[in-house]
Amino acid sequence: MAWKFLSLPQISALSEQNIEGVQKKLEEFLNFRQIKTSLKEAVLLDYYVSGFWWAKEMDFTHLQLSGFMAILNFLLENLSTKHITLEDNIKELGRAMAGIGESHSEKSGGFDFFSVDQAKAIISYLKISLFQHYKLYEYLFHNPREELVIGDENVVELVKPMDTLFPAPLEEGISYDMYSSFIALPPESEVETEEIDKECHPEGLQPETESLDIDPMAGFTIEDVKSVLGQITNEIIGSLQTEINEKLQMQEEAYTVRIDKLKNT
């Protein structure tokens, strides 16, 4: 029974690896192909890797390592395929390890290459690993779980073809009048019309409306401009001065009335 799960050559290959190498080798030996997506495979791999590494640190021989891995597989098979309870599985372990420390025992389970101390250590390890979490392993093997499809469906709205160099204004942005007057380009029909006008009226031959544009300041000298500005300034300053004098006079009269009242009292 000792080498029914992993052969001695496989155990020898595992013994030469570090813990990462042991994990990769066991994935190969156990034919685990969905370790990143299958919870069951991930738990089983951790179960066997942890068990092998513990046994290696206990300085088990290759034969003892093979026997210990067979015990791990034997107990897990009882749980997964035979639906054996915890109490019955402990009894099966006792039967398998019977005869350890006895010479030529009729009740030997085939693991007499272990010493008594090694058998006690194995039982202690199984107690804190498999037996302590027996309910979790039962749930793993016997409770079906929904397969969750990892994905998402998104509705994407494609951007309309760009007719202008700038996007339309947002509600909190500039007004549409400002946008249409200074930012948005005119429709293609207007652009084509302008191009036709330019072709019909090249430079130097513009329409008569453009030739009639006259500078409104033409015919006035600098002195004329100064005279007009001086008159406007004097009128503004004069009106302001008159207004100030009227306000000062009103305040003076108000203070005079107050002083007279104080004298009479």
Write a concise keyword list for the protein shown above.
11 helices, CLAMP, Calcyphosin-2, mainly alpha, 265 residues
Query: Secondary-structure element order, as H and E?
Result: HHHHHHHHHHH
Total beta-strand segments: 0
Shape: elongated
Specify Rg, calculated over alpha carbons. Answer: 51 Å
SS class: mainly alpha
Helical stretch tally: 11
Measured by DSSP, the beta-strand proportion falls in: under 5%
Residue runs with pLDDT of under 50 for 5 or more positions: none
Biggest sheet features: none
Distance between the termini: 132 Å
- Estimated helix fraction: 55-70%
Mean pLDDT: 78
Protein name: Calcyphosin-2
Organism: Platysternon megacephalum (big-headed turtle)
Pfam family, one: CLAMP
Structure report:
It holds the Pfam family CLAMP. This is Calcyphosin-2. The structure is a single chain. The mean pLDDT is 78. The chain has 265 residues and is mainly alpha-helical. Helix 3 (39-57) packs antiparallel against helix 4 (62-80) and helix 4 (62-80) packs antiparallel against helix 5. The N and C termini lie far apart (132 Å). Among the domains are: 8-142, no CATH class; 222-264. It has 11 helices and no strands.
